[in-house]
Amino acid sequence: MLFTSNSIGRYVPIVLLYFLVHITLVVFWNRFDLPDFHGVPSSAERTRAVQVANATQHELESWLQRPQDIFDFGMMGDNIARFSTLAEIATKHQSIDQRPFLSLLRQQFPWWMPSRLTYLPWKKSSATSSETTGLVLCVGSKNLIYAIHVIRGLRNVLNSTLPIQIAYAGDSDLSFSDRAKLTQLGPDIETLDLLNMFDDSTAGIKNGTWAMKPFAVLASRFQKVILVDADAIFLQSPDKIFEADPGLSSTGFLFWKDRAIVRGLDPGRHAWVKQVMKGRLISPGLHQSLFWAEQVYHQMDSAVVCIDKGRPRVFMAMMFTAWMNSWKIRSEVTYKHVHGDKETFWLAAELAHTPYHFNPEHAGAIGYLKNGTTNEVCSNQALHLNWKGEPFWLNGGLRHFKSDEHREFGTFTHWIVGDGKNFTSQLAVTFQDYIFCARGTQPHALSGTKYEDSIQRTLSEAQMADEEFYGRSGLLRGLLG
Fold it and tell me: What is the SS3 string spanning 244-298?
């Protein structure tokens, strides 16, 4: 094609706009001067990396010598970004002395005690590609039966072959006999005592409940972790999620939004988040969210989280998440403003300038049609979709009520997408549990779908597990509808 001066002129504004947008994005997500490495680094790149590492280490050393303000999450985020620079250099240039970087890490995170098996992005791994991805469940004796439901569903219904690590905090949290019940459920199931992986005098993992979760991710031998609560039930196999989900493969983080509930809105929660973000560039996803607009109570449901620790910035954001959930920080700051761990994953990434991805839909519901309606689905379970808009997993287990002493299973006939506008809740006084009802989009019947088959077979697995766990007396079989 022959270009004239006039035709070239038409393209100049477009080209300039492209470069302006590109430079803006680079500045936003890479504020700290990290050289752009591609392929095998040259000697010049290595020299530049050493210079950047030395300068960054000096900045961190100066900061660590000053009294630490645990309330300044923004400053901590900036320093996590500096740690990310060092982690990227250590990963790309493994011949560079890593000791100054690791020494600074231990100063900042005194609870960090990586073992020989702990996955670190800057450490050469001998694991095969089939061993790099796995599921991590935090399990204690109180939620043991729910974890059994999850694992039996994964192994016996969905035929998941991913290895599973059961994380716990000492024998008082999960006894030897209970650990044996879990490891006997199938192949490639192992246990991980977090008290052997961290200094608990500062981490506060023991009796930490939610706080254990980011520590379990860091302690895992897997590069790619699917962190799963003991009451999260999959409707489809998660085995290929890292390859299949575009947002996850692009950023290394995949999060799901919570129910779009306005009941009990706490203005202090939103005010605190905006205070720690004050003066910072906000990512487009957060800026456009209902949470930022103060229209919903929670942003994230952390019952399932996908993390690729092979990306140094993702790894350091997880260190930040664990810091937010450590004893002193959670007691004095984090848990005073947000509900447990759930907002700490995305908040750490946001503050550290690390890209992350949320599934666009708020949680829906999977359960039964409300009496007298055809457009409202109610249940104790929150439903989450995959990247194709299909039912993927549910939070809340399979019980009609989790605290139901009769252990009755739920009724599952319909599902509905959460539209972020119409969600109500009511307290079931008998069992002190909430029933949530979603409306605003068209409900879908489960009858005749593959999801009905998954739930029915998982319910059967759970029923058998209950009979083995509790004995037959007193059990009530759940209804599918």
Answer: HCHHHHHHCEEEEECCCCCCCCCHHHHHHHHHHCCCCCCCHHHHCCCCCCCCCCC
